[in-house]
């Protein structure tokens, strides 16, 4: 009898236009704490903290005022300007993507990759990539002491500089070009994955499979464009942030897409808290960070 009553109630809801939605993942929203154009969040497992890069102004401004915040997993700011471009001995203009390899923190910044030591945050060096204009996404290589970095080829406003590229950069300052192609569509988020690179593009809204020799293959097109961040989960899914959709999309193992989260204004470079199974989402235009619990 109880089951029949429940069934009748469910049918009534459907026919009245009300849909029972699946429960949304839990969110912690960190707002009004002093973030300034936050572009990426990286989980530093050794200290169990989140590192937030802040452009603090225009994305191409060589103004020396960028900073990196240290955030606790419960959303408390430990040190707003833990690494501060305005301090002596620090070069940080408009920091964007961040990646950690061992005791080194790599940060992209216009035409440079800065290397900071961990856990103290001391600057070790800055690596300039001549001819680059907008170094942006970054991911650790699958072995060794190197990272892969995207040049999104952005100029002032929506105009493209035509420098779209992917570079392989070592901690000692050596670098090499993996692919340079003005028609790549604004490569942004990047992930090294089993002998290939997976890259999302901001201008063309594509997701690309690129082998280590630079050959490009287009994967199924995401539901919306202006793609920014990219991370891979242990279950094989890729998560993609989309400004166009104000959402996080999941590229499933069967090559279909699903919406993981929505109502996110300008979600930028993504991070993963592997200890708590959380997605870390900076909202660049809102000066907020969303900590999203994954199932």
Describe the overall structure.
The protein has 295 residues and is mainly β. It has one domain (27-293): TolB, C-terminal domain (Neuraminidase, 6 Propeller), CATH 2.120.10. Helices cover 5% and strands 45% of the residues. A four-stranded antiparallel sheet has the order 1-24-23-22, with no helix packed on it. A four-stranded antiparallel sheet has the order 2-3-4-5, with no helix packed on it. It has a four-stranded antiparallel sheet with strand order 6-7-8-9, with no helix packed on it.
- Portion of residues in beta strands equals 35-45%
What Rg do the Cα atoms give? 20 Å
Order of helix and strand elements from N to C terminus = HEEEEEEEEEEEEEEEEEEEEEEEE
User: pLDDT under 50 segments (min length 5)?
Assistant: 1-23
Tell me about the largest β-sheet.
4 strands, antiparallel
Name of the CATH superfamily: TolB, C-terminal domain
Report the average pLDDT across residues. 91
Number of strands: 24
CATH architecture: 6 Propeller
Number of helices: 1
Walk across the major sheet and give the strand order: 1-24-23-22
Helical fraction equals: under 10%
Distance between the termini: 33 Å
CATH topology: Neuraminidase
């Amino acid at each position: 009898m109880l089951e029949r009553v429940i069934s009748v109630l469910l049918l009534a809801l459907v026919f009245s236009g009300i849909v029972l939605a699946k429960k949304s993942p839990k969110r912690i929203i960190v707002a009004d704490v002093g973030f300034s154009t936050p572009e990426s969040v990286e989980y530093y497992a050794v200290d169990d903290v989140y590192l937030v890069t802040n452009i603090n102004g225009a994305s191409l401004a060589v103004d020396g005022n960028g900073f990196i915040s240290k955030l606790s997993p419960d959303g408390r700011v430990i040190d707003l300007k833990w690494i501060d471009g305005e301090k002596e001995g620090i070069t940080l203009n408009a920091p964007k993507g961040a990646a950690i390899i061992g005791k080194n923190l790599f940060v992209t910044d216009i035409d440079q990759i800065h290397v900071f030591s961990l856990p103290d945050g001391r600057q070790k060096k800055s690596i300039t990539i001549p001819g680059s204009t907008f170094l942006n996404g970054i991911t650790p290589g699958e072995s060794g002491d190197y990272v892969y970095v995207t040049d999104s080829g952005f100029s002032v406003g929506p105009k493209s500089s035509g420098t779209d590229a992917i570079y392989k950069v070592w901690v000692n300052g050596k670098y090499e070009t993996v692919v340079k192609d003005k028609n790549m569509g604004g490569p942004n988020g990047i992930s090294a994955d089993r002998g290939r690179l997976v890259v999302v593009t901001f201008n063309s809204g594509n997701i690309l499979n690129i082998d280590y020799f630079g050959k490009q293959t287009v994967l199924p097109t995401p539901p919306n464009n202006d793609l920014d961040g990219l991370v891979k989960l242990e279950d094989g899914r890729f998560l993609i942030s989309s400004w166009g959709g104000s959402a996080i999309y999941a590229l499933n193992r069967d090559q279909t897409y699903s919406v993981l989260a929505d109502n996110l204004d300008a979600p930028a470079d993504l991070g993963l808290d592997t200890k708590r199974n959380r997605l870390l989402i900076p909202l660049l235009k809102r000066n907020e960070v969303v900590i999203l619990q994954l199932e």
